[in-house]
Automatic annotation (TrEMBL), chain A:
Keywords, ordered alphabetically: Amino-acid biosynthesis, Branched-chain amino acid biosynthesis, Magnesium, Metal-binding, Thiamine pyrophosphate, Transferase
Cited Pfam families: TPP_enzyme_C (PF02775), TPP_enzyme_M (PF00205), TPP_enzyme_N (PF02776)
Broad EC category: transferase
Domain of life the protein comes from: Bacteria
CDD domains associated with the record: TPP_AHAS, TPP_PYR_POX_like
Region annotation (Disordered) ranges: 1-26
Cofactor(s) needed for function: Mg(2+); thiamine diphosphate
Stored InterPro entries: Acetolactate_synth_lsu, AHAS_TPP, DHS-like_NAD/FAD-binding_dom, THDP-binding, Thiamin_PyroP_enz_cen_dom, Thiamin_PyroP_enz_TPP-bd_dom, TPP-bd_CS, TPP_enz
Gene3D superfamilies per record: 3.40.50.970, TPP-binding domain
This protein's name: Acetolactate synthase
EC numbers, comma separated: 2.2.1.6
UniProtKB/TrEMBL annotation, chain B:
ACT domain span: 6-80
Documented EC number(s): 2.2.1.6
One annotated GO biological process: L-valine biosynthetic process
Class in the EC hierarchy, top level: transferase
Taxonomic placement: Bacteria, Pseudomonadati, Bacteroidota, Chitinophagia, Chitinophagales
Name listed for the protein in its UniProt record: Acetolactate synthase small subunit
MF (Gene Ontology): acetolactate synthase activity; acetolactate synthase regulator activity
Keywords carried by this UniProt record: Amino-acid biosynthesis, Branched-chain amino acid biosynthesis, Transferase
Statement: the UniProt record of this protein carries the keyword Membrane: no
Pathway given in the UniProt record: Amino-acid biosynthesis; L-isoleucine biosynthesis; L-isoleucine from 2-oxobutanoate: step 1/4; Amino-acid biosynthesis; L-valine biosynthesis; L-valine from pyruvate: step 1/4
């Protein structure tokens, strides 16, 4: 077989783009095509990797790309959904904007799931879709679809270009909007005539202001002061942190705040890895399958400090019984999040990179020893009833938790862990250890099965020096397994760990607990995953015995290349603790 | 408690923005009673006037979602006491009825209707006013062979608004200073959320 060996390599910092004012000067004043202008814009923005799939309406851009092969890397995915999830994975580990190409019609509609995922998880993306010639718009032309209207609800911004001369300015806006403020996906639809059209190119100027757009609300000091007053007077304050800390690149500022205030801190699934797992004040995960203490004590704290999180229903459980006793301080960059689900006593609008240091300055240095002890008591109970039995099951069949435990021993918390959706995702997030930020890549808000494999490919290109382990269920893997072809062709060293319970486990768990064990279409059969991987020239093995697990994990991690390890786990294991839907967080069940 | 609110939105004049705003309502299964878009007092800036029947809590959240859109400059909501508003209505009535029946002529005068077109077969009248007024005239004209009726969306002026020029200057500032007011809600917070004890 012929493989292009384009290993992910370290790349120059994207922030170089902001200094490049204006770029593409070599072409300034020249007549260039819209397609060339697109690629010049990407280069000026410091883009090193594009995930995409060609087609009729985007052919002029791909034709121009042919001449840019030495400046920009294009990863040919096997499905546009895989392309956009890869873009998401890349953005999540690198902190840069993910770039995706797709053609019109089906190419564009295949992006929709990824756009919705990126929108709800605030992932910065610029997607460029081809479109039919402008004169054919609205004629039901071949591969024409109204992609702007289809994607409006799932994009932060979108725009259709019909004239090439718009391209530099529109792409500059696209990158600015995608990455500024609360990040999100942007889609630019470019008609074929605009890609072909020649125009007088005046260079590329990055955008840093749009008059109708306020990426960051201005910090109001009086609210920071008010928040500090509440925190200093609190006896049982509790920090909830979300992805805002990571998106704001404020991990250091956050840790300083946590350490000076001495307040216990719990994370949402999107906030995971912003604070090291073994930090003494990291008390665990919030929400439906979160830890025991953080859930129960949410309803006992006196001041709740929410940082860069949005009180998703999976975090709050029943809202009218959620933290009613507490005064709520809410730090968020998006004003629309304040009071959306939980009313804030003190709203601290702004970028937490700016607000957290202000707050840290004003809070008194404290150690909430007794209060932290309360969390430790709950942890103890969860360990006894839940965690230890899961880590050391008294059956021959392995549990997902013990696989994670073995993996932690080998990675020491240095790996990027990409998870799909379902039971393995909850177990993965609960048990995986993290030392570094931007290490947890998962589909949090949308819960997109099939996310992990393509996202892991992108994650590897975004963090080429780090091991990337994709933990995937047997169901989710079968949704996007064609991306094994992408791994085969471009050689991303992704470690694929399939936890196979021969069920759509999370749905089965709900059917068991809430639908009287009526297992309706959750019994899913699988192909021989190892043979499948081999057919893509990817090494792999299957493990069913505990005795061989650690060696197999080590082989996977040490292997020079991508690797697929299938681990058979208990068929009818459940994920606990669990806050049943419609219940309060304090009604969390341990078994 | 649901009540009538008028939402005023200042936007850039861009294709697709109407859809972006409309889906904020339809996504939450909220019906728009009336929607008008028109130029504003500032060239290039458009003004949406949207009327819905909802609780204030919902309206406040909707307005924040609208204001979050990249091409929206500002969004406000007001109750009917805070605005001056009008709607335009057109009525098509058979000309012979008006000519023959004195009562119809009197009704039209009473409601301040003006003739826009007079033909042998029909006459078109217009009135402007609040919905109750224009609707009442439909009722009273119905027995006399009202052929057609149409009413425009609401347009509204906010009583205590000082226009948008000053606001726009703020938006055009590249780096707004400390004194720039970011959002009314924060300033009016005490008045808006008396129950938060803040």
């Amino acid at each position: 077989m012929t493989t292009q060996t384009l290993q992910p390599t370290a790349t120059p910092d994207q922030s170089a783009a902001s200094q490049a004012l204006p770029t593409g000067e070599g072409l300034g004043g020249a007549e260039v095509s819209g397609s060339v202008a697109v690629l010049e814009a990407l280069i000026a923005e410091g883009v090193d990797t594009i995930f995409g799939y060609p087609g009729g309406a985007i052919m002029p851009i791909y034709d121009a790309l042919y001449d840019y092969n030495d400046k920009i890397r294009h990863i040919l995915v096997r499905h546009e959904q895989g392309g956009i999830h890869a873009g998401q994975g890349y953005a999540r580990t690198s902190g840069r904007v993910g770039v995706v190409f797709a053609t019109s019609g089906p190419g564009a509609t295949n992006l929709v799931t990824g756009l919705a995922d990126a929108q709800i998880d605030s992932t910065p993306l610029v997607c460029i879709t081809g479109q039919v010639f402008a004169h054919l718009l609205g004629t039901d032309a071949f591969q024409e679809t109204d992609v702007i209207n289809i994607t409006t609800p799932v994009t932060k911004w979108n725009y259709q270009v019909t004239d090439a001369s718009e391209i530099p300015e529109v792409l500059a806006k696209a990158f600015y909007i995608a990455k500024s403020g609360r990040p999100g996906p942007v889609l630019i639809d470019i008609t074929k005539n605009a890609q072909l059209q020649k125009f007088a190119y005046k260079g590329y100027t990055p955008c840093n202001h749009i008059r109708s757009y306020r990426p960051k609300p201005i910090v109001r000091k009086e609210y920071v002061e008010e928040a500090a007053k509440l925190i200093n007077a609190a006896e049982r304050p509790f920090i909830l942190f979300g992805q805002g800390v990571i998106l704001g690149k404020a991990e250091k500022e956050f840790q300083q705040f946590v350490e000076k205030s001495g307040i216990p801190a719990a994370w949402t699934i999107m906030g995971l890895s912003a604070l090291p797992t073994d930090h003494p004040q990291n008390v665990g995960m919030l929400g439906m399958h979160g830890n025991y203490g953080p859930n129960v004590l949410t309803n006992e704290c006196d001041v709740l400090i929410a940082i860069g999180m949005r009180f998703d229903d999976r975090v709050t459980g029943r809202l009218d019984k959620y933290a009613k006793q507490a005064k709520v301080i809410h730090l968020d960059i998006d004003p629309a999040e304040i009071d959306k689900n939980v009313k804030a006593t003190v709203p601290v609008w702004g970028d937490c990179k700016e607000t957290l240091p202000l707050l840290t300055q004003l809070v008194e240095a404290k150690q909430h020893t007794e209060w932290l002890q309360r969390f430790a008591e709950f942890t103890q109970k969860e360990q006894e009833i839940c965690i230890q039995p899961e880590m050391n099951p008294d059956s021959e069949v392995m549990s997902m938790a013990e696989v994670l435990d073995a993996l932690n021993e080998l990675t020491n918390g240095d790996a990027v862990i990409v998870t799909d959706v379902g039971q393995h995702q909850m177990v993965g997030c609960r048990y995986a250890k993290f030392n570094k930020t931007r290490s947890n890549v998962t589909s949090g808000g949308l819960g997109t099965m099939g996310f992990a494999l393509p996202a892991a490919i992108g994650a590897k290109y975004g963090a080429p020096d780090r091991p990337v382990v994709a933990i995937i269920g047997d169901g989710g893997f079968q949704m996007t397994l064609q991306e094994l072809g992408t791994i085969m062709q471009f050689g991303a060293q992704v470690k694929i760990l399939i936890l196979n319970n021969e069920f759509l486990g999370m749905v089965r768990q709900w059917q068991q607990l809430f639908h009287d064990r009526r297992y309706s279409f959750v019994n899913i059969t699988s192909p021989d995953f190892v043979a499948l991987a081999k057919s893509y020239y990817i090494e792999g093995q299957k493990v069913s015995q505990r005795a061989t697990l650690k060696a197999a994990l080590k082989t996977m991690l040490d292997h020079d290349g991508a690797y697929l390890l299938e681990v058979m786990v208990g068929k009818e294991n459940n994920v606990f603790p669990m806050v049943p839907q419609g219940c309060s967080v304090s009604e969390i069940r341990l078994q | 408690m649901k009540q009538e609110f008028t939402i005023t939105v200042y936007t850039e004049n861009h294709i697709g923005l109407l859809n972006r705003i409309a889906i904020i309502f339809s996504r939450r299964k909220i019906n728009i009673d009336s929607l008008n878009t028109s130029p504003s007092e500032i060239e290039g800036i458009h003004r949406f006037t949207i009327v819905i029947d909802e609780t204030e809590d919902v309206v406040r959240k909707l307005v924040r979602q609208i204001e979050k859109q990249v091409e929206v400059l500002k969004a406000y909501y007001n109750n009917p006491e805070e605005i001056v508003w009008q709607e335009l209505a057109l009525y098509k009535v058979p000309t012979d009825v008006i000519a023959e029946k004195v009562k119809v002529e009197r009704l039209l005068r009473q409601y301040g209707a003006r003739a826009v077109v007079i033909r042998k077969d029909y006459t078109v009248f217009e009135t402007t006013g609040h919905r109750e007024e224009t609707e009442k005239l439909v009722e009273v004209l119905a027995p006399y062979g009202l052929i057609e009726f149409v009413r425009s969306a609401r347009i509204a002026i906010i009583k205590d608004s000082k226009g948008f020029h000053e606001k726009l200057k703020e938006f055009e500032e590249e780096q707004p200073g400390e004194e720039v007011v970011e959002n009314e809600y924060l300033n009016q917070r005490e008045a808006l959320f008396p129950d938060t004890g803040y």
